[in-house]
Amino acid sequence: MSKPAIAQKPKLSFWQIWNMSFGFLGIQFGFALQNGNASRILQKFGADVEHLSWFWLAAPITGMIVQPIIGHYSDRTWNRLGRRRPYFLTGAILSAIALFLMPNSAAIASIAPPILVGAGMLMIMDASFNVAMEPFRALVADNLPDSQRSIGFSVQTCLIGLGAVVGSCLPYIFTHWFHVQSTAPAGQVEDNVKYSFYLGGTILLLTVLWTIIRTKEYSPEEYAKFHPAEEAEEKPKSGIAEILGDLKRMPKTMKQLGLVQFFSWFALFSMWVFTTPAIAAHIYHVPAGDTSSAKYSEAGNWVGILFGVYNGVSAIYALILPSLAKATSRKQAHAFSLVLGGISLLSIFFIADPMWLILPMVGIGLAWGSILAMPYAILSSSIPAKKMGVYMGIFNFFITFPQIVNGFFGGPIVKYFYGGQAIYAIVLAGIFMLCAALSVLFVQDSKDISVKKALADR
């Protein structure tokens, strides 16, 4: 009996790939606003600098739980809206609501103290981002042939960067272009931050709707033509037991990438949590505990600009990465990017002028662009297509676990080992980024293995 013919997925045009990931532009608006302003908001509500990482634990814990579940069920969802798109829509609606509510936590203080309400909104916001984000990764792998996946994830990274640039800069834009108030009494969030969150929530919802309207997903019948062998297999049991089984059977490449991700995301978490207090104290010389002065607000606004710079660099670099990876290898391109990111983080300690902080943001942007693209391109070549959603979700463990470790221990380390000086958390982030660069060289990329095997068989 002859085997069924395996149809090849057609290549998509640049604009089809662009539309497929356009919703990530809006999601990153929200994500950038969270990264650049959550610590600032929580400090306004009374959080001490050494406790910030504990509040940020809400984000990776919810991601660790939500993403594998969403990935598992999106692999099995086939309805009129599609396979992945129902999750985009649900996540976008919940994310927009959380973005509207978080800066107004003080207004609902009758329910609970503002600091707890703010932390709760941070948890809901990140859980919603995860619901929306995870299926986007799987959608790229679903719709693109392997030859286009590097460019697919790179376009996605470019859109992430573009969204993050504007999202990070919004508080600064509202203040300096539209003269919106940028200071507020203790316990209240500045108007420029509030308006930024409102606009971010609106854009997030609209861009995700664009992807839902403009992107086609393959039907079960079409999917079967591309993966007939998988469809012929006996259907396994569903639920948590299967997720745990998939976790146990994860490919070797995925495990090796896990170490790279641990070092990378430990560093990123430190940067997101501690950059504002580090720069405020180390460069602007803001006294400890001062969160209401114009100088602290200036430092916070400048951090938003700096985050916009590294995201802008990542957006441009993402379009160059496929060519760099083709000229060298995906591993070497990723290692090169991480080295530049690590050196850049370390250099912040030696900078006294805020303007010079733009320079290390360039190196951090190169690392960030690669972190968002290369691991997923390498991973997607090593996992079965029918498990794309669940394995993309499980891969999120290697993103959330280092953040949880950092969240538990980062604050006490800053308090007891660094004497409350958050700048040393940034130095440690640089060291961990260099460790990530070293560990990526030991990853087995199945694309490289296939090329070597083909040459050996000649």
From TrEMBL:
Entry-linked InterPro entries: MFS, MFS_dom, MFS_trans_sf
Gene3D superfamilies associated with the record: MFS general substrate transporter like domains
Localisation per UniProt entry: Membrane
Positions of transmembrane segments: 12-33, 53-74, 86-105, 111-132, 153-175, 195-213, 257-279, 299-321, 333-352, 358-378, 390-410, 422-443
Pfam families: MFS_1
Topology with respect to the bilayer: Multi-pass membrane protein
Keyword match Membrane: yes
Assigned keywords, A-Z: Membrane, Transmembrane, Transmembrane helix, Transport
Residues of the Major facilitator superfamily (MFS) profile domain: 253-458
Name of protein: MFS transporter
Organism: Mucilaginibacter jinjuensis
